[in-house]
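User: quick one, fold this
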Amino acid sequence: MAPKHEDKSNVSRRDFFKTVGVTSVATSILTSPKVKAQEGQAEVIGPGTVPIRLTINGQVRDFQIEPRVTLLDTIRNYAELTGNKRVCDRGACGACTMIVDGRTVYSCSTLAIDVQGKTIRTVDGLANGNTLHPVQQAFCESDAMMCGFCTPGFVVATVAMLEKYPSATPEQMRRELNGNVCRCGTFNRIYEAATKARRGQALQGAAENLATVVKSEVARG
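Assistant:
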């Protein structure tokens, strides 16, 4: 009979794996983001309401919201600017399109807390008092709307497009507006409105240039 060898370590396989398991869990806890945040290595925000400050249509607004609240919900529910619509709520249709620092974004999938310090423009801020923005006016004149849910997003996207490409070609129009969907199928009227707004913008620019030249000539005597 083979002699028994004494286990000097006095640690069973079960004890060994239990120790390994506890050590692994302890390691994962110590390196988790939450613990790191407690150690001052990262900042934890929420889950309750936090103060945020947004610049919307030229006005600075303060809110108390949860970090998970989207820009669209903040604008509609807290700022009470309901021009942009919630339709697909998954960043696919473009009805909620807003302009943030000159670029279009789907506000339904953009966190409000992430756009602090940036310039936010919504469809509610395009008109000048009772005077419609040229793009809004062109949409009305071209009857480029049906149910109206997609219209605010298309208007905002068209404004951003013409600011980026003042002399936009049809190809540029299609490319810049392809992130917006009209379920009623009024795309032809929408492109007609975009073209009319582009022409009106060009005429306005030409008139302003002419006025500048005339003033210059008058000043010279």
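User: anything notable?
Assistant: The domain at 46-125 is CATH 3.10.20.30 (Ubiquitin-like (UB roll)).
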